[in-house]
Amino acid sequence: MSTSTTPRPSRRQLLRTAGGLAIGLPLLNACTGGGQSAQNAGADPTDASGPITVNWWDHFRPLTELFEKKLFVEYHGKHDNVTVKRRQLDPADLGQALQLARRSKQLPDVHSTAGLSGSVAALVTNGWFHPIGDFVDLGNSPMKDYLYDGIHRFDGKVYTFPVFSGRWHDSTTWVNSALAKQASLDPEQSPATWDEYRATVRTLDQKTPDSVHGLLLPMKDTDYLGGKLTAFAQMAGAPGQTDWKTGEIAVASEPFIQAMEFLLALKADGVLHPASSSLGPRDARARWAAGEAALFPWGPWFIGGLMVEESPAVKRGISAWQIPAPSTQRGTVYVAPAPGSFFVSDQAKNPKVAADVLFQMTTADFAAQLATRMDQPPILLDSVDKADVHPAYKKNVSFFQQDVRIGPVPEVRNGGVAKALAEMRDVHPSPGEIVQAVLTGSTKDYKAALQQYADKATKERKRAIDAAKKKGAEVSEDDWVFGNWQPGQDYTQASYK
Amino acid sequence: MTVTTEAPVRQKAPAPAPKRRTVWRRMRDDWWIYLFLLPTVVGYGLYTVYPLVASWWYAFLDWPGFADVGTFIGFANFELLWADDLFWNSFRNSLVFLAIAVPLRVGLALLLAIVLNRRSTPFRGLFRTLLFLPVVTTGAIVGVVFTLILDAGGPVNLALVKSALVDSPVDFLGSSGMSLYSVIGVWVWKWLGITLIYWLAALQTIPNELYEAARIDGAGNWKEFRYVTLPLLLPFLVVITLIDMVGALNVFDLVMTLTGGGPAFSSEVVEVYIYRTAFGATVPQLGYASAAAVLFGLLTMALAIAQALGIRAARRAMA
């Protein structure tokens, strides 16, 4: 039998020691820079000793290589204690994952906001993000001209900056050049008008083998269809879903009716791929790449996506067609200023390091590298000219410069608008859902459906404004009226003053 | 002669009535039973009871998904829901799904089980395996594969057009008149195998002597089925139908991958509606989505009670 000679601490001693540790550790932690009190913009953000992991979630699949093999590796090369761990998710999954992660306090340090389609202002109000303006000097970066109140800056604090240009739409027609040549068409020649477009698609449909169809118009994703309706309506003269001169919801206006008739005409021509009604855009891209259709309208990221998943389709030959207009007098596609692409989460363990990693994306060099991935065009659009990109990508960006203008954004002028937007509930059926119903034969009276949407959306906006006012927001319907907005011109930062 | 000496039998005193043990005492004496139960109780509590109770509470909150917490608004979510056409559309779709898919799955599986239970059926084992394979395949994968199979250029349409049954391909998933029924068809195909197994197990409880007796009495196949098999399967029918009904209310993966609830909400069932409201909206409405789940739960509960009462009344009438 052995007897231990080590004196055992009494229960009281044990409790006293544990209590001392419980109080002392956080204090020690604060002294050694574990908390945020030691942070300041001038010091190297990675001075803290010990390994730092920046968790990063985004939805930019074509940028996988750029991020994981270049940006993060280079950053690690400069700061060997910092490792960036990236997770790429599909946009809808990302939105869901972020909502769940936030509630369980597992948000990554940096994330994009795809899938969280609400206003960024609402997210800022609810404390989702950490401001980055104190950590990095955006005022002296090429980004300084692209920062807007209500989009990137809230209450004087900068939360994000645009990495991608806002000057784009997702209705460029991408052409299988080989099939166009087979139909004796010049793949580089965009049909200018809707009538010419229809005639060209018919030619492609007829002069290619029976297994090839003229156009793929995926109808499963209603946001995609809503984008087509709005872009075509804008080419027919609509300012967008809101008429900025009057502030009214313009979805039932004549240009929208014309756009709907154009889409219906394409269907009536019998040129659509028969599976269009059950496909989403990503499935449709795979079908287009397989040579089942000659044309497919989608966004500027099209070639970048193909390069990742279906690169032979690019090598086979691809061209871009400018968005057609009802007549030779072309309208303009209006878009909001480029939003912030990435945010530092308020749950970030090292917000300063996270902000510093983000800051590496503000350089002209990064913009040039971004352009080569042929995703959304970079915010510094000039870099596309110098970058080694596919000629069709370059051509498409030049189309955007001709066709796309920056429109007004109510929450830039009045931050209170964001509070009303946060109160707003979705109205159904939305324009995209109406297009889907019309093209799949569920509804015939699209004029009534669009009018009904406009009425319901107007009513809902009024209700949301009243709800926001009750919570102290200063907002009114006049916030959606921009008397100085001029069609065909950019609504610049100066225009808000 | 054998003499047996037996111990004198003592008159046993009546055993004292066992003392009723308190719950605390029982737990102390049989602690190991509760220890073994603990993982199940904790798991069930965390992943079934807590979400259930929480969703009831959330249903009374105005809770945009971006916010950390919601604000109590009483019955406002239920009032909005009551006036929401799309909720009732999805509710109707769920009921249609239930009303068509469950009898189809239960009936078809029974027929197949009877055929596959016969010793004379060739390749019984192979057919049972083939029919069971879709059950162990992930729902989302089945959905993706069937989008290709039911596609305008897919094998089903190819067969229909080539055999001149239709002039042009049928838009199984992209037509508002067909989408829900196509999903029902795929769901029945996917889950048929498991119901088949239930029926096979049930059929094997019927003693062969009964069939032999029926045959001696001159019963043919139909009479055997009508007067022997069917009456003895009735208790199983109630259980199998209940299991399949629960399954028919869990079709999220298939609907999302096949149609996404469209086109024009034609195949949107309540689960998809809840998901869309909770995660797909511009401003996610967690309270509203929870209210939809609660209301749907209450309504299906009412239907189940009505069904149970109906069955009881029918049994009494038959007795």
Structure report:
- Chain A: It comes from Kribbella capetownensis.
- Chain A: InterPro entries: Bact_solute-bd_prot1, SBP, TAT_signal.
- Chain A: This is Extracellular solute-binding protein.
- The complex is a heterodimer of chains A (497) and B (319).
- Chain A is α/β, with parallel strands linked by helices and 497 residues long.
- Among the domains of chain A are: 52-166 and 339-389, D-Maltodextrin-Binding Protein, domain 2 (3-Layer(aba) Sandwich), CATH 3.40.190; 172-335, 3-Layer(aba) Sandwich (D-Maltodextrin-Binding Protein, domain 2), CATH 3.40.190.10.
- Chain A contains 19 helices and 12 strands.
- In chain A, the strands form 4 sheets. In chain A, strands 2-1-3-11 form a 4-stranded mixed β-sheet. Chain A has a 4-stranded mixed β-sheet with strand order 7-8-6-9. Chain A has a two-stranded antiparallel sheet with strand order 4-5.
- In chain A, β1 (52-58), α2 and β2 form a beta-alpha-beta unit.
- Chain A is globular and about 65 Å long.
- Chain A starts with 10 loop residues before the first helix and ends in a 27-residue tail after the last helix.
- In chain B, α1 packs across α2 (31-58) and α4 runs antiparallel to α10 (221-248).
- In chain B, strands 1-2 form a two-stranded antiparallel ribbon.
- Chain B is built from 13 helices and 2 strands.
- In chain B, 68% of the residues lie in helices and 1% in strands.
- The model of chain B has no long low-confidence stretch (mean pLDDT 89).
- Chain B is an all-alpha fold and 319 residues long.
- In chain B, a hairpin with an 8-residue loop joins β1 and β2 (71-72).
- Chain B has one domain (76-318): MetI-like (MetI-like fold).
- The longest helix of chain B has 33 residues, at 85-117.
- At the A-B interface, α3, α17 and α18 of A face loops of B.
